[in-house]
Amino acid sequence: MVETDFKVLADTLVEQGYIIVSDFIDADLTEQLYQHVTALPASMFNTAKVGRQQTAQQLETVRNDRTVWLSNAYPVEQAYLDTMDTLRTQLNRQLFLGLRDFEAHFAHYPPGHFYQRHIDAFKGQSNRVVSSVFYLNSDWSGQDEGQLILYQPDGETRLQTVLPRFGTLVLFLSEQFPHEVLPALRDRYSIAGWFRTDGIL
Ligand code: OGA
Ligand code: MN
User: Fold this and answer.
1) Domain of 189: which CATH number?
2) What is the mean pLDDT of the chain?
3) What's the pTM?
4) Which of 15, 62, 120, 157 could form a disulfide with 174 if both were Cys (CB 3.0 to 4.6 A apart)?
5) Does residue 201 sit within a domain?
6) Which residue has a Cα nearest atom 9 of ligand 1?
């Protein structure tokens, strides 16, 4: 994806509050990320927890995916983080969001695992501004299930149903869009990431 595409992407994000992009990055890098995450030892994965700030609403969210944070220790992880940093710069240029950094983890959902409807950030409680999810799964069809459901900010109306297909990126404003991960019939791999500001907003 080239810089002009990043501009269109940023415009759409601000207009709609979310955007779904296919073939976000070079297929070779996507494939390398998939090979890398599936080769990591199981002992590196944590059972995901809900946020540090345990509001009543967050406590109700239930997830049982397995996660590993990305770092610069592996070139393939660094390549993804570098791409997202370029995107961060573009978002700041166009949207004046003041995004200071990006953090991301791989998530593995074994068959039947899920993440119930939740919000990634609550107003005034988090510095997560824009959420991203990037999918690594080849040949994923509707029969494999494991869809991401994005809801309208009211939390009731379904806005989008996204299959976790190889190369698809979803971006949305962290405070505004409830979403959930339906159980899949296959192992499902993604990179969930957040663009953050410095302080509590
Ligand atoms: C998350 C999340 C969605 C997905 O990790 O917060 O909502 O489709 N992930 O993996
Ligand atoms: Mn989420």
Assistant:
1) 2.60.120.620
2) 90
3) 0.92
4) 120
5) no
6) 192
